[in-house]
Every structure is written in structure tokens, then in C-alpha cells.
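Q: Start with the shorter request: fold the first protein.
A: Done. Sequence, then structure:
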Amino acid sequence: MPIKFLEPPLFPLPPEITRVILGGGSFIDQPGVQLPTLPLARDYALNYGYDLEIPTQRAHLVKVFEDALAFMEEVILDGTDLELPPEFFDLQNPLDLLVWASVRPMDLRARWSCALLRIMHTLFHLDNNVYLRFLPEIQQQIFDRYERYLVPTPDGGWLLKGHYEVPLLAVKRKESKNRVSMLLKLLHKPENVAETIYDQIGIRLVAEDLLGVLASIRFLLDHHVLMATHIKPSRTRNLMVDLPALERWMAQLPPGFTFDQLEPKERRELLSALTLKIERTESNPFSSSSYSAVQFTAQTLIRLPSPAVSTLEELQSRLQAMGKPEMGDLLRIPELIQEQDEFTFFFAHEVQVMERTGFESILSGPASHAEYKFRQKEAARRRVLQGIAAQEAPC
């Protein structure tokens, strides 16, 4: 039976057009949806990507709804006096959320429906990001590039050791975030999609001082661990180095100069001259102004076997277990495995290089990770609970 669509007037235009498509805003910040009937909601879900007539797709939709309820209770509402209305826990059809969110004027149930839909939309982007399915393999390939040159020292530090050596105080690998952390991060990002999380994988190198930071970056480039060709320009943040001062100093250096030629007093004076002193614009609103590092995003070409390879290998293994390895030869399984193309793509990871005092500042105080996560959680709460929390404007 064909869906009978409403025939809204041509004007005024809905906010999805004026605020999102024309205005560049985020969909999850918009005032609800306009799907007042279940047939309209079902067609919307179908074009969103979920056919509720297919059991696996319906099951995933229901699971995302249940996960959104749990995240709302355990994270967003934690520490508040707000509670989800009981009717949401008795909901049998998640499409009702779209219908409820379409009620005008918006009542409290519509606003809570909006809040849950914001979380669900973000979870859909997490669950349907193909790269996240291969994170362990991606992570291994990226960290291998660094670890072949990282050598621990007896005093608990590290060396970057290759054609030459650079001492480090600490090395921290940032492995892939868990689902809750990624959800929190996405909920405060305007794009609100998983492809924009550039720090799912990252590494932090800590040197003694700013000169050690420069030496560490030089080492990574000299040994092709990093390549300037694969740096994402818009993601570079230099919160440490006065570049004009650095270039003036380098322009007058004699051939063959190395940092170990500096006397202690000369090193201190040089550090003072090269340290960035001007007021900086903070690009990440959740970072403290005391955070100091050189941070950039590098892309690495990842090579993974075709998904068909594991299936063919499993089939070959089963035939051998059945005592019929000749069937594998008849089916040309070894040749088919060799013929499969690699699955290749570039994957971004974050690199932070900092000196001792900057590193100590993130262990405690306003620049600490705990404080960062608290500010991030507060921002996500404000965004999700638009029109519900007393301090917020209507949804």
C-alpha cells in the first residue's frame, strides 16, 4: 500500500533546510523532526538505512535504542536529578520515537524523544563505520612503525634509536577508544560522525625540553616513521614553538651543528628564545589553556587481506579436517586465496610530542585527562538534553 505523504506548504521551509543544508548546522541540534505518523516514520527509517521488515536490521535498531537508554541513564543523567519517563522503557517500537518527536507544540515526551534520537543517530554512525571493525589490525600496523625504534632504558625512560639516538622521558600509546568514549566525543562534535575521530589511535612522546621535542620530530622524519606527505594540515597544532624565531636561529647555524654543542647557559637562553609566548587561540574547547604540545595527525597506508581470504582459509581447513584436502585443490582454493586483492586505505592517527613540564600538567590540574573528560561530558549533556535541562533553550 503506497504511503500517503502529507502535503506541507512550500513555505516556510523546515529547519532541516534553513539550518542544516543551507546554514551548515548539525542535524542533531535541530528542533525535532516532522514525521507525525508511523508510515512516514517507517519510510524515513528505510531511507536512513534500516528496513524494519528485515529481522537483522530491526534487531540492530532495537539494540541501538536499548544502548541509547543505557547511555542516557548511566552517563548523560549521572549526577543530575533528571529521570527518563517510564514510558520509554516500555516502548515496543523504536519508530514511535520519531512520531513522538514530531508533536507540535513540543511536550516533554517529544523533548525526551529528541534526546534519545540524538544518541541513537550518533550510535548508528559508530556501529556502521567500516574502519572500526578493523581497529586491532590497524592499530598494530601503526604502532609497529614506532616500536621498531623505541627502546626502553633502565631508568624507566626510552630511546628513539636508529641511525642516531634521541632520549625520551615517556611514551604513551593511545589505543582505540571504547564505545562510550567515542560516543561522548561524537556528541560534542559538529560533524557528529565517526570518520571525524582522528585520535582513535595515537602516540605521545615526552622529551626533556623543547629542543628534545624538535629532535624527536626530526628523528621520526629521518627514519620515515612520519612523512610530511601524509600530514593532515588542518589538524596541526603547534602550542610550543615560535616558528619565526626558530627559522632566524637556524639561518645562522654553522654546518654540522648538533644540540650537544650547546653549553647549559646557551641551551637555557635558546629554549627561552624559541618558546611560543603569544596568546594562542584554543582550537579544542575542552583542552585547558595550560596544555602545551606539538600535535599533528598523520595518515598511514593500511594493508589488510581481503575479507574473502579468511572464509577461503576456513573452508580449506574444514576440508582437511574431513580428510578431503583434494577437494580444496579441485576448487582451486589456494589459487583463489592468492588472487584476492588487498584491502587498502589511509587511516589517520594522532601524534603528540611534548616536554616535561607540559606532560606533568596533564597528570593533574586543569589540563588533566580527568578534567578534560568532565568538560566533554558536560558539553555532551547540554547538547543531548536541549529543552529538558532547566538551563537550556527549547529543543
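Q: Next, the second protein, separately.
A: Sequence, then structure:
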Amino acid sequence: MFWPRLAPIIRKEFTHLWRDPLTLAMMVALPVLMLIMYGYAASFDVRNVPLGVYDQSRTAESRQFIERFTSSGYFQLVEEFRSSDQFQDRMDAGRVRVIIDIPPDYARNLSTGKQAQIQVLVDGSDPTWASSAIGYVSGIFQTYYQDRLAILFQRRGMAKAANNPIDLAARLWYNPDLKSVNFYIPGLIAVIMMQISASLTSLAIVNEKEQGTMESLIVSPVRKNELMLGKVLPYVIVAFLDVIVVTIVGFLLFGVPVKGSYLLLLLCSFIYLLGAMGFGILISTGARTSQEAMQMATLTTMLPSILLSGFIYPVSNMPWPLQAISLLIPARYFIDIIRAIYLKGVGLECFWQPFALLTALTVFNLYASVRSFKKRLD
């Protein structure tokens, strides 16, 4: 049994963590702080868009149309223009992001059955934000148009014609309110835990070299695989507790519950953390200084986990070379798993492929970390 040789290594790492309150506090508090900061900052929901209106009609009909926007919760009326010459300055300064220009003949055209044109100007400097704003404008306009059409038919005694011959009933599954926080919080947990785990364990072997205690490990009867496992397990246990904490914080602060099995989530998280910390150990064995280890951990885990994992940008939209690189990123598979458990509440049978690939990467990282470590002084 290797436990008599493994236990002292685990006990030594726990003692080191306990005697280093800064590292321990960083492992416990930093994931929660990052979740809070990213959770509030990474929301892509569009609310209170600064709206400017140039109402040349100044009729009851034009005021009703404007009220549809101001009462929707998506737009906030900040200025009523007196001339179209003001559009450029206000848009350049960022005081308004959407401008509605209602022509003088708007009400007259509505009453006579002619087409009434309305111009909507949208700040397109941020394409993602602009697409959401245009979607809100289109939805409000469609609802207003249907209401006007129903009133027109009723005035002409055509109540039956006011009914649409096709009743389209759209139902949203998994995220009915379309809250972006429900989509990004699970991904945030994956990105944060990868960053914290790999960064901390990347210092495990380097610190032994810098502190001059590497010799005692080399002459000890502990095998390489036992040493690596003993180095990883204490950090995995602490990070595992972090997962429990951040899921609770995600629910209490952002209202994002775990719809699926919590035990299954913890199992997948354990495998994910084990692989992330194995990769951190792999970095630590190749680094010469702690500064070099931290830089390598940031470059190889943080940036790929954010940009190439599907956390923000869909992997399917990336060029094929980047898609190929993303196959080696554990966060890509864990994000698919955690979103399936969080949003859909499904079981392992629905995401067994990313689970199998995540497990394979974990085994590879642990194996590579053991093979890369040499029990000798260079």
C-alpha cells in the first residue's frame, strides 16, 4: 500500500497551506470575489438604454408609440430633440444610444390607411449590444402594429378578421426569461476554478526548489506518482469546497439554481479540478522560478479558458485551427457539462461525450505531470 508514503506528503501540503494564510484566503475568498465581479460585469442583458426622441407629429398616436418604449423597461427617455441636427452630437457623445425620429405626417398617414414611416437610429459601435437593442425595437414595434391592426379591423366591423389565421405559440425551454446571467454564471464557475487551481498548483514544485527542500523529497522513498498525487489532492479538496461555496453564492446573489443532480455536479467538478491541478503541476515541474510558473499558468489556462472554451464565443463560429486547439482545453468540456446540469437538469446520459473527453484529459494531465518530474537535481 502506498498510503503510508502518500499521507506525509498530503499532511505536509495541508500544513503549508495552514501556515500560509494568504494562499489559503486566496483559495477560499478569491473564487467568490471573482464570481461576484464577473457575474455582475459579464451580464449581456440590455436595460435602460438611453433613448432620444424627435417627435415631429406631436399627436396622441405618436405619444402612444413612444410610451411603448419608455414603459418596456428596456429604454429610458433621456432627451426630446428639437431638430435632427442634434442627432450626431448626442450620439457621438454617448448621451443617447437609440434615436426615434417620428415624421410630421405620422398620425395623418395612420388615420388614412397610408404607410407611416418611422426612422430608428442605433449606435452600432458594439455589435452585440446593437443586435439586442434592435431586437427589442422590433419586438415593441411588432406588438404595437398588431394592436393597431386589431383596432382598425374592429372599427370597420371586421372583428373576426382581426384574429391572425396562424397562432404561433413560442415556448422557451431551460431559460424562459432569457437571462444572460443564467447562461454565464455556470461558465464563470468553470473559468474561475481553472484559473485558481492551475495558478496555485503551478507553484508546488517551484516553491520546493526555491525553498531548498527539494533535496529531501528526492532522497525520500516516495515515488513520483505518489509525490504528484500528494501535492495535488490537498488543493483539490480545498478547491472542491470552493465549488460548493460558489454554487451557493451563485444562487443567493444571482438566483441561478442547480436544476440537475448536485452530486453529479460535484463528481464532474472533482474530475475537472483534478485535471486542472495536474496541469498546474506539469507547469511547475518545467518552470525555474515562481514568477515564470505564474506567467505560464496565466498564458496557458486563463486566456484559453475564456476565449476558446465557448464561455463567451461559440466554438462552432471559430476558425478550424482554433477549434482544433480548443479540443485540448478542459474548460470546453466542463462548461458543456455544468451548463447542462445547471440549465437543463439532465443526467450523464445526455453529456457522456464531454464527460469522457474531460476524464481523458484529466488522466493525461496527471500522467504527464508524473512523467515530467525527475527525482534528481539539475
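Q: Describe the second briefly.
A: Residues 236 and 274 are 6 Å apart (CA to CA). The mean pLDDT is 81.
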